[in-house]
């Protein structure tokens, strides 16, 4: 079997001419000049309201996200730290995080719409990989995006599959470790996912690390929740796309090991590495020390199963919780597949997203 099937196929969004955001919001906003009489009155009113009703409390809320003033207040998000963001966004000591760069904004919005339908959007923290994403998300949804410097530069971003890009994505376990050290439960998702149901009831028990299998082979409905046996490459094919961690020593140990494995098996031209093999080696090496929990396949199927075996989809109807649009290469192909399956929500349901139409 070809190796890429078991890896998380991420691909270069820049290789396609797909417009990132067909309806740029900048055209829909009518700037009011602060030098016009109307602008001055608005500005004065705002200052009065601010001075009287909003004592400066250090709350990370952009008050004027729809006005011209937004551009100057946007720059404050540069100094917004992960600790501040986590404390602002977390509910019940729990965060849902993703890490995205600008080309993935349509996928981010699609994912967010599906999460909003399950009423968990308030816990979502977007780890922005570039300043455009940081500003865009916080402009529309103040406080819900943070950038952990350094930002990816467009030069690096264009060289997808390059060492720079690999170095960049390999910071994910570091972000997750930091969040655990701050004391939060954290769910990480890739944004090419769609929630059909609420995943939280499936996080049974008090295990350290919860994850899903990326293998497409059909399992019994009552399959074990243990780490599966290693596959052909001597390691498992657990997906690094959806992980839930409790802020316990075991989860921190796996993140530390994952960081170590990424450093020990650095990027190479031949392998076109992503962060998934290192995650699997981390699980392999910490297996005896950490309380691991494999989530049910019927609820969290790999795209290699969900999009490729209609018989199985029928048999497990009503059981699916999160769908992952993987086992396919190409930005446009992913969108097309979501559309074909009625899972591309951004065209008709953008207003359900806390970001609105992007
Ligand atoms: C809060 O978290 C605890 C433990 O993680 C969980 O059992 C409980 O259901 C959560 N409560 C809400 C309201 O989500
Ligand atoms: C990527 O990280 C490796 C190891 O930390 C380092 O040697 C290399 O210079 C980095 N490459 C880029 C392009 O950032
Ligand atoms: C699943 O169910 C089958 C048949 O009912 C049983 O033989 C098997 O031991 C069960 N497997 C697990 C892991 O519980
Ligand atoms: C870890 O990997 C080794 C080498 O492939 C394998 O022999 C061992 O069974 C794995 N351990 C676990 C717990 O999966
Ligand atoms: C598709 O799913 C059916 C039903 O679960 C299963 O019997 C069959 O082996 C699967 N086909 C493939 C190619 O995995």
TrEMBL record:
Q: Where in the cell is it found?
A: Golgi apparatus membrane
What the entry lists under PANTHER family is as follows:
UDP-D-XYLOSE:L-FUCOSE ALPHA-1,3-D-XYLOSYLTRANSFERASE-RELATED
> What's this protein's family per the entry?
Belongs to the glycosyltransferase 77 family.
Looking at the record's lineage, which domain of life comes first? Eukaryota
Give a GO cellular-component term: Golgi membrane
- According to its UniProt record, this protein's enzyme class is transferase
Q: What is its EC number?
A: 2.4.2.-
Originating organism:
Gossypium gossypioides (Mexican cotton)
- What Pfam families does the database record attribute to this sequence? Nucleotid_trans
Instruction: Tell me the GO BP annotations in alphabetical order.
Output: rhamnogalacturonan II biosynthetic process
Nucleotide-diphospho-sugar transferase domain location is 120-338
From the Swiss-Prot or TrEMBL record, give the protein name: Glycosyltransferase
């Amino acid at each position: 079997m070809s190796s890429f099937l078991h890896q998380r196929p991420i691909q270069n969004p820049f290789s396609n001419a797909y417009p990132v955001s067909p309806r740029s919001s900048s055209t829909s906003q009518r700037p009011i000049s602060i030098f016009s009489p109307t602008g001055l009155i608005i500005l004065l009113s705002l200052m009065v309201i601010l001075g009287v009703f909003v004592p400066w409390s250090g709350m990370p809320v952009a008050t004027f996200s729809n006005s011209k003033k937004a551009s100057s207040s946007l720059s404050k998000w540069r100094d917004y730290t992960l600790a501040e963001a986590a404390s602002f966004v977390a509910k019940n000591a729990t965060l849902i995080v993703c890490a995205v760069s600008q080309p993935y904004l349509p996928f981010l919005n699609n994912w967010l719409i599906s999460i909003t339908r399950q009423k968990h959007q308030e816990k979502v923290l977007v780890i922005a990989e570039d300043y455009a994403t940081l500003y865009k998300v916080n402009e529309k949804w103040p406080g819900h995006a943070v950038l952990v410097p350094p930002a990816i530069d467009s030069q690096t971003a264009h060289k997808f599959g390059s060492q720079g890009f690999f170095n960049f994505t390999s910071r994910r376990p570091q972000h997750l470790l930091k969040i655990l050290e701050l004391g939060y439960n954290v769910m990480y998702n890739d944004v090419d996912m769609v929630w059909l149901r609420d995943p939280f009831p499936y996080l049974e028990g008090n295990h350290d690390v919860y994850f899903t299998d990326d293998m497409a082979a059909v399992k019994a409905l009552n399959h074990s929740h243990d780490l599966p046996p290693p596959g052909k490459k001597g390691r498992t094919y657990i997906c690094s796309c959806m992980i839930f961690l409790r802020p316990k020593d075991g989860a921190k140990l796996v993140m530390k090991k994952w960081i170590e494995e990424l450093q020990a098996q650095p990027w190479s031209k031949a392998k076109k590495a992503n962060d998934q093999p290192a995650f699997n080696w981390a699980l392999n090496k910490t297996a005896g020390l950490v309380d691991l929990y494999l989530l049910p396949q019927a609820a969290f199927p790999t795209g290699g199963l969900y999009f490729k075996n209609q018989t199985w989809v029928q048999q497990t109807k009503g059981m699916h919780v999160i769908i992952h649009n993987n086992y396919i290469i190409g930005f446009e192909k992913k969108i097309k597949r979501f559309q074909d399956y009625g899972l591309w929500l951004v065209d008709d349901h953008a207003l359900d997203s806390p970001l609105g139409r992007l």
